[in-house]
Amino acid sequence: MHKSDRAPRRGLRWRPWLRAIHRDVGYFSVGLTFVYALSGLAVNHIADWEPNFRQITRQHQLLTPLPSLDQQIAETASAALGVSEPVREMYRVDERTLQVVFDRRTLRIDTRTGQVAEDAEEPRPFLRVANWLHLNRGKRAWTLIADAYATGLLLLSLTGLWMFPGRKGLWGRAGLIAVAGALVPALYVTFSGGP
Question: Whole-angstrom Cα distance, residue 152 to residue 40?
């Protein structure tokens, strides 16, 4: 039998399956990766800023004259400013200033002029939810989703290593890059002194 008569040798057929799995798991993971990556960046810098809420300062003017009782002044201000939270604390800062404290805002009311200084925390629309998910505040149900996502990331890593044969694969370029990536946390722990 001539060399040219032999059937051409077919490569391993499992690599196309690995590429398909890698591709589809990658597509599926895009949304979760976006949530975890943005939240990770936000909470990594928690010493520099508040990732869940932004601080707002506003000035308001109430119609005068105001009622004489502090409780009535607080109710008038809440109604005028559309505050539906219950009052947590209320006290006189001085003779003319009433401070009303809610969960996420504080009002300082000048009882003579009706001027109100409001300090409030407003949720950052996307980041607050992303941080809530990232820190697993959703408990059991979210734990299952987070575990599935972590498994998907492991699958992406493993399929990525075995997708290509030869010099581009595990025993070549892919292996060298994987070792370099594994060295990052190892070297950091070594030189930082670890936990």
Answer: 18
Give the model's pLDDT for residue 160. Answer: 85
Q: Taking a C-beta distance cutoff of 8 angstroms, is the pair 80, 114 a contact?
A: no
Confidence of residue 138 (pLDDT cuts 50, 70, 90): low
CA distance 15 to 66: 77
Q: Are 76 and 60 in contact (CB under 8 A)?
A: no
Triad 163, 184, 26: Cα angle to 5°: 35
Distances (CA, A) of 189 to 175, 181, 182, 185, 195: 22, 14, 12, 6, 8
| Residue ranges covered by each domain of the chain | 13-49+125-178, 53-123
Rounded Cα distance, 108 and 99, in Å: 4
d(CA 60, CA 108): 10
State pLDDT tens for residues 69-87: 999 999 999 999 999 999 9
How many residues are there in the chain?
Answer: 195
* Helices (H), ranges, the chain: 14-44, 70-81, 125-134, 140-162, 173-192
Sheet of 89-92, strand order: 53-61, 115-123, 105-110, 97-101, 89-92
